[in-house]
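Whiteboard transcription, Tuesday session. T.W. wrote the structure tokens on the left side:
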């Protein structure tokens, strides 16, 4: 199918966008590094070595996992940054900073935290997500992907996608496919089972893609080149949204009808209706550079940034 570029310009779409301020501000003890949602619970990794569990329905924290302090390069004790978090059943996954800049992977279950991959493995892991209860998908700084078997404690494969630096990955709903973003602007759609590249999603971004979201057959990409791109993985269609500043974060609604992007130097979030490319909401009030945007449902989303505040937004 012929590729179609659908361009939406800020000055046009801004005419109909509705300004929204946060419905709730959630203060953390540490800066937000990563967030994920399962059911009615929000799981947050922080730079204070914690995974905090927040009940979104009752609006309160219900659990905290605290990792032990580590030594930095000056041999001083500090809390490790928790770069990536995930949950499956009773198992919580934490990818964290290790001794003197290393990376380590932990699983917390039944109030016990176990180190799965130590810093001695010398894997510069950037992101980790469960595939199932016995397998974890890893993205490395070297733009290598790994499928790790928790039972055998071995990598089933380690594949380098390119020489470009890794930025982010996102899984589809059944965790059979992943999209990997890197500094080249190319996004690699891969089969999780064997790590083989299915196709390259490219043409939207020409520079580093900071974040990706993968929902309902579509991938949104947040670009350093100030372009938010949406790829349809089943066709060659691309939708492109031009921002006035670098786009650090993005998120898709579960049905991929709405795409959210960090949009502007004031850390605003722009939400586009993908059926007509219109900018429909402009979310104002984030305090720092955005790193996470997650839809809870089509009318509610949460955003995290490089500070201690998570914002809850209502589109009603």
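and on the right, the sequence the group agreed on:
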């Amino acid at each position: 199918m012929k590729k179609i570029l659908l361009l939406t310009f800020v000055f046009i779409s801004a005419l109909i966008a509705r300004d929204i301020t946060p419905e709730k501000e959630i203060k953390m003890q540490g800066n937000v590094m990563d967030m994920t949602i399962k059911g009615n619970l929000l799981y947050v990794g922080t730079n204070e070595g914690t995974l905090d569990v927040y009940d979104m329905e009752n609006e309160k924290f219900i659990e905290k996992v605290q990792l032990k302090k580590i030594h930095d390069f000056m041999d001083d004790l500090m809390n490790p940054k928790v770069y990536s978090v995930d949950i499956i059943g009773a198992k919580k996954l934490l990818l964290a900073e290790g001794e003197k800049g290393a990376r380590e992977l932990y699983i917390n279950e039944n109030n016990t935290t176990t180190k799965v991959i130590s810093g001695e493995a010398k894997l510069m892991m950037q992101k980790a997500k469960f595939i199932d209860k016995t397998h974890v998908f890893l993205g490395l700084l070297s733009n290598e992907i790994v499928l790790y078997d928790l039972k055998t404690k071995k990598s089933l494969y380690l594949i380098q996608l390119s020489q470009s630096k890794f930025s982010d990955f996102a899984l589809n709903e059944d965790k059979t496919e992943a999209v990997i973003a890197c500094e080249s602007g190319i996004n690699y759609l891969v089969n999780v089972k064997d790590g083989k590249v299915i196709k390259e999603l490219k043409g939207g971004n020409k520079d580093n893609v900071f974040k990706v979201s993968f929902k309902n057959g579509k991938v949104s990409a947040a670009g350093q080149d100030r372009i938010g791109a949406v790829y349809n993985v089943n066709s060659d269609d691309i939708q492109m949204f031009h921002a006035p500043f670098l786009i650090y974060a993005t998120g898709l609604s579960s049905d991929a009808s709405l795409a959210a992007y960090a949009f502007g130097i004031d850390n605003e979030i722009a939400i586009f209706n993908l059926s007509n490319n219109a900018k429909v909401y402009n979310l104002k009030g984030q305090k720092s550079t955005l790193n996470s945007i997650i839809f809870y449902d089509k009318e509610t989303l949460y955003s995290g940034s490089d500070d201690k505040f998570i914002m809850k937004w209502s589109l009603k």
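Someone added at the bottom: Residues 6-14 have pLDDT under 50 and may be disordered.
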